[in-house]
Design a protein that fits this description.
With about 140 residues, the protein is an alpha+beta fold. The protein contains four helices and six strands; from the N terminus they run ααββαβαβββ. Strands 3-2-1-6-5-4 form a six-stranded antiparallel sheet. α1 packs antiparallel against α2.
């Protein structure tokens, strides 16, 4: 994956590396720091970090901040079968939905915007950061 990144993306990455490196003593603190920086920078309400299990057939919730309880219960373990999850966890595609309730998925969840950012180790997808907002992202 040799993609050019913007100045804003570089600044966010440097901020994450600087903050997480100086404050991290364990994985939970590392995840918490990353999510707080991303949520603040992107102005989203909540976020979750998922990592793929050893079989790469399920994404397991590792950490979350302000994630609605319905989402935690429903998506604590995500089987990678539906196309929306295959895009993220198998193909490593960024998924952004800015009309979440009207797209027919999870109408009972109070979110408008969702972004799922794949996490890579080299060229291999290892998980995703999923951020959500109760209003449309502008």
């Amino acid at each position: 994956m040799n993609k050019k990144i913007s100045v804003n993306e570089k600044n966010l990455l440097l901020k994450i590396l600087n903050e997480s490196g100086s404050k991290t003593t364990d994985l939970t603190t590392f995840f918490d720091t990353i999510l707080k920086i991303i949520l603040e920078d992107m102005k989203f309400d909540n976020g979750s970090i998922y990592l793929l299990d050893n079989t790469k057939q399920n994404a397991i919730l590792q950490h979350h901040i302000n994630t609605p309880e319905k989402i935690i219960r429903r998506y604590q373990i995500i089987p990678i079968k539906e196309e929306r999850f295959v895009k993220i966890f198998k193909r490593g595609e960024l998924v952004i939905i800015d009309d979440y309730p009207s797209d027919g998925i999870d109408k009972d969840i109070d979110l408008m915007s969702i972004a799922a950012i794949p996490l890579f180790l080299g060229d291999t997808v290892i998980g995703s950061i999923v951020i959500g907002n109760r209003k449309q992202y502008t």
